[in-house]
TrEMBL record:
Keyword NADP belongs to the record: yes
The protein's name in its UniProt record: NAD(P)H-binding protein
Organism of derivation: Antiquaquibacter soli
Keyword NADP appears in the UniProt entry: yes
Organism lineage: Bacteria, Bacillati, Actinomycetota, Actinomycetes, Micrococcales
TM regions (residue ranges): none
Any one Pfam family match given in the protein's UniProt record, by short name: NAD_binding_10
Length: 256
C-alpha cells in the first residue's frame, strides 16, 4: 500500500481521483486549505496551504507519491515550487502532475504558467510523471452556461476534444501505481468536434433551440486554438462522449 498525497483533492478532478486511489487500496491524504466547510474529501483529509507552505511538512510526512492536481489560475508556478521544495525535503519519490494539451504551443497566460509548472517538476530532482489532458466535458458546458440567460449561445470558430473527468482520474490513478514515467502521451476524448457541433449536442439534450452566434477573436492565442494545438488527436483515450455528458446533465437538471 502506497501513501499518496493529492493536492486539489476536493476539486472536480481531485474527488474521483481520490476515490479511485482509495478503491485500489492506497492510503490517500486529501489536501485542502480548509479544515471544514464545502464538499468534504472524506477520511484522510489534511490541511495545508500551498501559497505559504504552512502545514506541508506534516502533510508530506511518510508520503511516497504526490498527485499535484491543484490549480489557482493565478499562481500555479509559485505554489508548485513551494510544494516541490517541501516534497524534496520530505523524501517524496514520485510526483504526478496534471497539465493541459498545448501549454507549450498556445500563448495564453494560464497555459504559460502550466508550462512553467511542468518545467519545475521536470527539473525538481524528484522522479516525476507529467500527463497532459484536453479540456473536460464540464469546461465546454460552462462555455454554454455562461450565456444561458441570453437568447443565443456564443461559440468560437475552433474545435475541441473534450474528455470525461472520470477517465482522466482513471489514468492518473494508473500512473500513480506505474511509477515515474516522465512525460507520458497526451490524452483526449473520443471525438474532435467544432464548438458549433458541441453546442448543437448541448441544445438537443436540453431541448433548447437558441441561435448560435460564432465570435471571431483576433490574436496569437486564438490562432493557436484554431490550429488545433490544444487537441491530442484521434483515436482518443476517453470513451465517454460530450453528447452523453450533456444528456446526463439535462437529466440531473430535470430531476433537481
Amino acid at each position: 500500500m502506497t501513501t499518496i498525497l493529492v493536492t486539489g483533492a476536493t476539486g472536480g478532478l481531485g474527488r474521483p481521483t481520490v476515490e479511485r486511489l482509495r478503491a485500489a487500496g492506497h492510503d490517500v491524504r486529501a489536501l485542502s486549505r480548509h479544515a471544514g466547510g464545502g464538499r468534504q474529501a472524506g477520511e484522510g483529509r489534511v490541511v495545508a496551504d500551498l501559497a505559504t507552505g504552512a502545514g506541508l511538512e506534516d502533510a508530506l510526512t511518510g508520503v511516497e507519491t504526490v498527485l499535484h492536481l491543484a490549480t489557482t489560475r493565478k499562481s500555479d508556478a509559485a505554489q508548485t515550487l513551494t510544494l516541490l521544495d517541501a516534497a524534496r525535503t520530505a523524501g517524496v519519490s514520485h510526483i504526478v502532475y496534471i497539465s493541459i494539451v498545448g501549454v507549450d504551443r498556445i500563448p495564453f497566460a494560464y497555459y504559460r504558467d502550466k508550462a512553467e509548472c511542468e518545467r519545475l517538476v521536470a527539473e525538481s530532482g524528484i522522479p516525476f510523471t507529467i500527463l497532459r489532458a484536453t479540456q473536460f466535458h464540464g469546461f465546454v458546458a460552462d462555455l454554454f452556461l455562461a450565456t444561458r440567460r441570453l437568447p443565443f449561445l456564443v461559440t468560437l470558430p475552433v474545435s475541441d476534444q473534450p474528455i470525461a473527468v472520470e477517465e482522466v482520474a482513471d489514468r492518473l490513478a494508473e500512473l500513480a501505481e506505474t511509477g515515474p514515467s516522465g512525460r507520458v502521451p497526451d490524452i483526449g476524448g473520443p471525438e474532435i468536434l467544432t464548438l458549433d457541433e458541441l453546442a448543437a449536442q448541448w441544445q438537443r439534450a436540453h431541448g433548447s433551440h437558441k441561435r448560435v452566434w460564432r465570435v471571431s477573436i483576433p490574436g496569437k492565442t486564438m490562432k493557436a486554438f484554431r490550429a488545433g494545438h490544444h487537441l491530442a488527436g484521434l483515436p482518443g483515450y476517453g470513451r465517454g462522449t460530450f453528447a452523453e455528458y450533456a444528456a446526463h446533465r439535462a437529466r440531473d437538471t430535470n430531476e433537481a
